[in-house]
Each structure stands twice: as C-alpha cells, then as structure tokens.
Amino acid sequence: MRSWFERALAVSALVVVCSLVSPVPSCAQAPAESAGCNQAAPEPLTYVDLPGRPFSPIPTHDGCWVFVSLMYANPGSQRGVAVLRRRGGKVSLVRVIPVQGLPMGAVLTHDGKLLIVASGDRLAFLDAGRMISGQED
After folding, report:
1. Cα–Cα distance measured from residue 103 to residue 45, given in angstroms and rounded to the nearest whole number
2. Averaged over 13-36, what is the pLDDT?
3. pLDDT classification of 35: cutoffs 50, 70, 90
4. Which residue stretches of 1-137 are H helix?
5. In Å, what is the CA distance from 60 to each residue of 4, 31, 66, 76?
6. What is the mean pLDDT of residues 114-118?
7. CA torsion sign, 52 to 133 to 85 to 17?
8. Residue 122 and residue 35: Cα distance in Å, rounded?
9. How far is it, in rounded angstroms, from Cα 26 to Cα 64?
10. Helix axis angle, 30-37 relative to 4-21, nearest 10°?
11. With 0-12 CB in 10 A as exposed, 13-18 as middle and 19+ as buried, what is 135?
C-alpha cells in the first residue's frame, strides 16, 4: 500500500509531465477525471437519446468524452457533432456543435486535439478542446 506522500508525489510527477508534453484535455484531466469517467455503468447496456441520427462515435483517448456525428433524420433533428460526457457510470449529451452538410465519418487525430468529420463533399476540422469546454471563439 502506498503512503499518502508516495501518491502525492506520483500525481505531482504526472502533472509536471502532462504540462511539459502538451495541454491536451485528456492529459490535463488525468488521474481524478479519468477515474470518474471510466467508472462502470450500473447496467450492462446504456442508451442515450440524441437529437439526430448518430453515426461514427469517436471516444477521446482517456474515454471521458465521445464525439458522435449526427445526420439529419427529420425536421426536428439536428446536424452536427454531439459531445457526450462519461462520468460516474453515466453517459450524457452535453451539447451539439453544428456542422454544415451531412456529417458522417469522423476521426480524432493521434494527439486528441482535432476531430476531422466527413460532411458531404467537404471535411470539417473541429477543435476537440473547445468542443469539450463549450468555448465558441
């Protein structure tokens, strides 16, 4: 069993490494945030209602966030990328980022900073950190 001093030292080392490597949201959220978001769900199957037809879910590297392309399904639905948060064994819709066209396939860059979404005859490049924080500018 590790002492409180050893645990504090390990967390401090992780914070220093994260700040030196890059300010990636998953790195900055490291031990406490990742532990809470990867908690097991109370049921083996979870559904999340979304305001459009989901396509291509992409989790962040730490598993705390999931980006999902939303295709237009009917007049009341939204097109864009849904931002879902995993926390305390639950998954919830936080916001939808509008994307023109018909968003479908997506990929997160290796550093976790950029989500690239195929949308009709274009590509949309979205800042993952801003999508998570809700920052529009």
Report:
1. 26
2. 45
3. low
4. 4-21, 25-28, 30-37, 128-133
5. 30, 15, 6, 28
6. 96
7. positive
8. 37
9. 8
10. 100
11. exposed
For the chain, what is the mean pLDDT? 79
Tokens in use for 17?
């490494």
Phi, psi of 96 (to 5 degrees): -120, 130
Report d(CA 96, CA 89) in Å as an integer: 21
Q: How is residue 56 written in tokens?
A: 């291509």
CB 55 within 8 A of CB 71: yes
Residue type, 31: P
Q: State the pTM of this model.
A: 0.72
pLDDT at 78: 84
